[in-house]
Amino acid sequence: MGPADFVFQSSLTRKGSGQRELGDRLLLNGKRGAVIQIKSRTVKPKGDAEERAWIQKVTKKAMSQAKGTVRMLRLQPADMVSGRGTARSVTGDAYEWMAVSLLDHDQVPDAMVPTFEPIGMPALTLTRRDWDFLFDQLRSTTAVLDYLFRAAGAPPIALGDEPVRYYELAAADAAAPPVDIDTELVGPGGRRFSTPLLPQVPAGAGQTNTHLVIRYALEDVATSMLRDDISEYDRQTVLADLDRLPVGMREE
Questions:
Q1: Which one, of 49, 55, 68, lies nearest residue 10 by Cα?
Q2: The pTM is what?
Q3: How far is CA 154 from the centre of its chain?
Q4: I want to staple 211 with a disulfide (CB 3.0 to 4.6 A). Which of 72, 83, 204, 232 is the partner?
Q5: Cβ neighbours of 117 (radius 10 Å)
Q6: Which pLDDT score is estimated for 190?
Q7: Among residues 39, 40, 46, which one has the least CA distance to residue 60?
Q8: What per-residue confidence (pLDDT) applies to 220?
Q9: What digits encode the pLDDT tens for the residues 130-156?
């Protein structure tokens, strides 16, 4: 699903006299958040027509559930627990949200493009294999979230074709000229580097152990004791800042 420090478990919040579950998972990093609704095919797949109808049905349900989750979080904060077991209060207005319908299905029919009504925020459908590809390729929650928001703004594609779209965008990034920056912000003595937002080669495929070193740094921050006025929110901020180091710059 992703690094444990950025994945938060579903929680229950009160609605009137009852309770309502908030998403299957929340992926939170920096100022962006994704509501992940997981839909699994638990019975033996049937014919293509039946599978298309089932996928269409659960996709619409997932998007409705994600919309409801964000609406509830904006009405009242909820205490969420990360995959590492740390708790934090999540306020809906603190994040830019998107919805992801994540399909765990081994036999998706060819050219299946689920449709759904707009839900007032970016939304995307992926297979579990697509999801695993993105994390294997980028090894950064920040980079994956940025990609998801970017892909959600593009025309929809067939389930299972996310690697194709990724490499098309990566090729476009590689051909784009570097964006100019204001070096006065960092002062003299530095060196400028330029790298595409999306690497064509999987992160960590070089000759160094850069990504392993960064993983160790994240692990140290995640497991360190908190002292004085340092809070779990502060810890999460530091983790997000470390993870924000651009993927293409990490080896350098």
A1: 68
A2: 0.80
A3: 16
A4: 204
A5: 10
A6: 67
A7: 39
A8: 83
A9: 999 998 888 888 889 999 999 999 999
CA distances for 231 relative to 66, 84, 223, angstroms: 28, 15, 13
**Order of strands across the sheet with 7-15?**
7-15, 18-29, 32-40, 96-104, 123-127
Which positions ≥6 away from 65 have C-beta within 8 Å?
23, 35, 37
Label the pairing between strands 78-81 and 96-104. unpaired
Which residues pair with residue 97 across a beta bridge?
A: 33
Residues of the chain with pLDDT under 50: 1-2, 17-18
Please give the Cα distance from 176 to 233 (Å, whole number). 37
Alpha-carbon span 89 to 108, nearest angstrom:
37
